Amino acid sequence: MIEIRFPIDEAFAQQLEDYFCEEYQEYWSIEENRLTHENFLRGFFEDQQVLAEETASLRKEFPSLPDDPPIKELPDQDWKEAYKLHFKPWSERGLHWVPLWEKDTYQLPEGEEIVYLDPGMAFGTGNHETTRLCVRRLLDARDEWGSAVSAKRVIDAGCGSGILAISAAKVGFTDVTGFDNDPDSVRISLENEKLCDLDGRIDFKWADLKEGLIGQTGDLLLANILANVLCDHAELLCQSVRPGGWLVLSGILASEVKAVHAVFAPVVENHTGTLPDMDARIEGEWSDLCYRF
């Protein structure tokens, strides 16, 4: 295994993180040294050819990528451990998200729930703002619906590591489905489902947005996808929400949220008879939108 490491500044690290959120990738990770506050872009590759191809591809998107970064051969064990550096446990309202390698040491408070994840290089640890925005809406729905959550259906469109669907099952939703257009994400979601002792409880499948939603409706539809994809499928997304349900959109830059709302508001009005106010939350450079039907 070959490692390449680029020193980068904080602003560039944020640009790359935003890009990786929107574009599926399996080779790159971003890390910050908490003591020195230095940032690095790290890549891990099977051989020199893949390294050269992926670096050239990334440099087309980011011409300012530093030249001549250090490259070194890694023993297999170093490769397996490297991606763990940037995934730390976090919790909110009685639900904890914990990396698998801390399963034996993490202290879970009595009466609370835990989601174990081993995302590898896939997107979906919950550390990115777009995922956290969705998780908070999920917990809002749990809190508002109370014991009725067991009769509600959750759809996780673009499931990534499965974190949202698994979280829904952990807080009491019993009818949960998730899909993604990347087969590796579906595989990782199924593995994480087993890690959380939910094997068979969630219906994960490989599908794009149209395939995943045609003929399907849910009480809580979570769509953490690109803003332009959301807008292109506004009617499909809205028609997939049951009366009394919620549509939660994420993956939206804060600078785009008004434009996305302008697309969705009239579509929601066609379904509900009421023009919705903009219910948006902003975290960092990212925003969500929530519509009630």
From TrEMBL:
GO BP of this protein: methylation
Q: Does the keyword Methyltransferase apply?
A: yes
Q: Which GO terms describe its molecular function?
A: protein methyltransferase activity
Q: Which domain of life is it from?
A: Bacteria
Q: Please give the start and end residues of each transmembrane region.
A: none
- Which controlled-vocabulary keywords does the entry list? Cytoplasm, Methyltransferase, S-adenosyl-L-methionine, Transferase
What InterPro entries does this protein map onto? Ribosomal_L11_MeTrfase_PrmA, Ribosomal_PrmA_MeTrfase, SAM-dependent_MTases_sf
Question: What CDD domains does the record tag this protein with?
Answer: AdoMet_MTases
Asked if the Swiss-Prot or TrEMBL record annotates the protein with the keyword Ribonucleoprotein, the reply is: no
Q: Which Pfam families match?
A: PrmA (PF06325)
Entry's family note: Belongs to the methyltransferase superfamily. PrmA family.
Protein name per UniProt: Methyltransferase domain-containing protein
Q: Which organism does this record belong to?
A: Oceanipulchritudo coccoides
